[in-house]
Design goal:
alpha/beta; magnesium; thiamine pyrophosphate; Thiamin_PyroP_enz_TPP-bd_dom; Rossmann fold; metal-binding; pyruvate decarboxylase activity; four-stranded parallel sheet; elongated
């Protein structure tokens, strides 16, 4: 029976603190011992998948519903198999915590030629690949594990994009102090001066507009801002449309909802109302090809 508090327990407790109740993944030699702790954790359920790509897509879907997800694979072959799913999560602002079980630190430091590597004694190839599709990365060592876990998880939560954690098999069971404060106790600090200037500019544009309209999309959902959007619509009385990726972020039976905008493919009234607006209040919108009818929107980004 496990009695001491370890790096593994710290990481799993922090995942649960973010609201995670299920962890997806595939077992492998470099994560088997860690998975014993996952299975033993009273607040987490292990969901084994047929392969790592399936696990990545399952985690992506889970994060869209629950707000954040975790995925565990082994080093090299496992993380390469999952990388396409993580890249998709990065592209669509889905917060997935990718945990990789790695060889022992001594093996990596000595450049030993072990399996699941490229046979050149280098162990950072795959981490470098993940660096392109994650917003924070870390290779855990006992001395700084707590700070690094918190830093990476906070970044995932705040930026709503994947992160990457390497957990060596000789680090997961090292003793560590329990957390003494909530992981999300450090709010993001805004530049108040810049916000004030933006607000003055926005108010001026809105007050002088004759046909203002609100156009919202999927990032409203990612950043849990549906209620804020609803209050804005109610207080302003402005009509609102969404794009297809944001379908469902606002009640479509609401009297101010005018439809799902898709450029030239939109219904004539909706297209005219959006394209001819002299003030489009864009919230959480990314004007990609597939949701604008192939970039046929009748307005510029400015």
């Amino acid at each position: 029976m496990k009695t001491q508090y370890t790096v593994s327990t710290y990481l799993l407790d922090r995942l649960h603190e973010l609201g995670i109740e299920h962890i997806f993944g595939v077992p492998g030699d470099y994560n088997l011992a860690f998975l014993d702790d996952v299975i033993a954790h009273e607040n987490l359920e292990w969901i084994g998948n047929c392969n790592e790509l399936n696990a990545a897509y399952a985690a992506d879907g889970y994060a869209r519903i629950k707000g954040v997800a975790a995925l565990i694979t082994t080093f090299g072959v496992g993380e390469l198999s999952a990388i396409n799913g993580i890249a998709g999560s990065y592209a669509e602002n889905v917060p997935v915590i990718k945990i990789t079980g790695t060889p022992p630190t001594t093996v990596m430091e000595n450049g030993e030629l072990v399996y699941h590597t490229l046979g050149d004694g280098k162990f950072d190839h795959f981490s470098n690949m993940y660096r392109e599709i994650t917003v924070a990365q870390t290779n855990l060592i006992p001395e700084h594990a707590a700070e690094e876990i918190d830093r990476v998880l906070r970044t995932c939560w705040n930026e709503k994009r994947p992160v990457h954690i390497n957990l060596p098999i000789d680090v997961y069971n090292k003793p560590i102090n329990k957390p003494t404060e909530p992981i999300l106790n450090k709010p993001i600090l805004s530049n108040n001066e810049a916000l004030d200037k933006m607000l003055l500019h926005a108010i001026s544009k809105i007050n002088s507009a004759k046909k203002p309209v609100i156009l919202a999309d999927f990032e409203v959902d990612r950043f849990h801002a549906q209620e804020d959007l609803h209050q804005l619509v109610e207080k302003t009385g402005f009509p609102i449309a969404t794009l297809s990726m944001g379908k469902g972020i606002f009640p479509e039976k609401h009297p101010q909802f005018i439809g799902v905008y898709t450029g030239d493919v939109s219904f004539p009234y909706l297209r005219k109302r959006i394209d001819e607006s002299d003030c489009i209040i864009s919230i959480g919108v990314k004007l990609t090809d597939t949701i604008t009818g192939g970039f046929t929107q009748g307005f510029t980004k400015e």
